[in-house]
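Researcher: Let's do a round of design. I'm pasting the structure tokens now; please hold your answer until I've finished.
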């Protein structure tokens, strides 16, 4: 079951990950959040930031490849 949950998280879009990150930051800004829960939310937030960065990096590489392909076509 844990593998299915991990797979589901990997399938989330960048926008969905940003929304989850917003929810985590909102929880962290709560004044009455217990320390253990705050730490768990912090870890979750850091994981979401890494996922967002990875997704952005992938898209950036795709855009660079497309731009290079377009430039190569323009030279012909």
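Researcher: That's everything. Go ahead.
Model: Designed sequence:
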């Amino acid at each position: 079951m844990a593998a299915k949950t991990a797979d589901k998280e990997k399938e989330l879009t960048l926008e969905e990950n940003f929304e989850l990150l917003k929810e985590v930051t909102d929880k962290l800004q709560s004044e009455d959040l217990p320390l253990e829960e705050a730490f768990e939310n912090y870890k979750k937030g850091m994981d979401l930031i890494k996922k967002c960065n990875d997704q952005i990096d992938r898209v950036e590489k795709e855009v660079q490849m497309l731009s290079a392909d377009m430039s190569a076509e323009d030279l012909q």
